[in-house]
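Hey, can you fold this one?
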Amino acid sequence: MIDSQFHYSENEHAFYRDQGYYIFNRFLAPDALGACGRQIDAMLVRRHNNVPIDQMISTHQQEAWVFRLATEPLLLDMIERQIGPDILLWSSHLLCKPPRTGQLVPWHQDAPYWNITGRFSASAWIAFDDITEKSGAMSVLPGWHCKGVLPIEPSPFDRGFTQQIVPSALPTDLEHKQVQYVMRAGQMAIHHVMMPHNSPPNHSDHWRRVLVLRYIAADGCVGPSTYQDYRTGSDFNREVFLVRGISRNGTKPRHSPF
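Sure. Predicted structure:
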């Protein structure tokens, strides 16, 4: 599924450690991009009416193709360079912004909201559509993954992200410091779990569909949480899977949900 030109060497790893993100020119092979796109189209057709189309959809426990992608050896090689040889897959989300819709996602950091402790890998952010400034490209603040937990306040949104980073805690020259993920379909970006990021609504006539994969070293502790079955609207329990190496936290996670 992964393009033969994808690589994550020490140079890319050093950039990620220093800047907190990296954008790869190649990730998905062309045939895999087409196949994954068709799978996403089918998912959206199966979506239950009670599941908003722009809601984060947890995927690797429900979709075998997502689990196969998340466990591709070249991808796990990258994760191993970041957190070591014993790896748990704990999260995956499909993020959709339909044409001319989708909510603004305010500036936030991810890790403080998770009931999880341990050594996180970068979050892998995979584009299935060409992403432009107009279609809701995500922005990051290079180097700000080292700033610690930033202060938050209530956001003006009634669902989704109800908190945001206090604006005064962000740089005054935000427009000049931020880097947008303007990407072609099939590219991947990675960002540190403490990286401040945001994204605007989709003002274009095209979809913005992204899959996010998240991993943690196998000595970490993943607390309970629930996700929603996008096909039925019912809840199910989060489960982590040992996708490389051995378990190090006293538990016996399964290797696959399928």
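The longest strand covers residues 87-97. Let me know if you want another pass with a different chain boundary.
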